[in-house]
Design brief:
The protein has about 150 residues and is mainly alpha-helical. It has helices spanning about 20-30, 45-60, 70-85, 95-105, 125-130, 140-154; strands at about 5-10, 15, 35, 45, 110, 120. It folds into three domains: about 1-30; about 30-105; about 105-154, no CATH class. Helix 5 packs antiparallel against helix 6.
Length: about 150
């Protein structure tokens, strides 16, 4: 004979008297992330996993009340245009300026450090490396200042 609480929630280990009570708990709990579009509900571990599922499987923008897109490519373009999404790593930014700054991280590193073998995306990043003392070179403060002036003139 099953115990009074024979139906356990796999995620939070709570017990329920019936399968329907457990199902209602999963559907209504803030600790569970359910796709309400799929015919068979699945409990995702995080809000991000659910978000990714809804966008990839159902092509629905989770940020605005727009009808579903026909393809994931259309949804991606919408996210880039309307929600400041980085097309490379799929991170979202509230402001376009933040996205522009972020895009630099994906740029090719082709600036050689003046003192070691490291490569940088921008000259200012290389200068920060020198100023921070993380370079093995013997560049002194005077040299770094001159290099900085030279970089900002060009």
């Amino acid at each position: 004979m099953p115990s009074q609480l024979g139906f356990r929630c796999i995620r939070c280990k709570k017990g329920f008297r019936s399968a329907s009570a457990r199902k209602q708990h999963i559907r209504d709990s803030a600790d569970h992330y359910i796709c309400h579009i799929c015919p068979e509900p699945f409990d995702y571990e995080t809000q991000n996993e659910l978000h990714d599922h809804v966008e990839t499987e159902h092509h629905i923008c989770t940020y605005c009340d727009r009808p579903p897109f026909r393809t994931s490519k259309q949804l991606d373009q919408h996210d880039v245009d309307k929600h400041n999404m980085c097309i490379v790593c799929r991170k979202y930014y509230r402001k376009i300026q933040n996205l522009k700054m972020h895009k630099i991280t994906h740029a090719e590193k082709n600036i050689d450090c003046a003192g070691c073998d490291r490569l940088f995306v921008t000259e200012s990043a290389m200068l920060l490396h020198l100023e921070a003392g993380t370079c093995d070179s013997i560049a002194d403060r005077y040299y770094v200042t001159l290099l900085g002036r030279q970089c900002y003139r060009t």
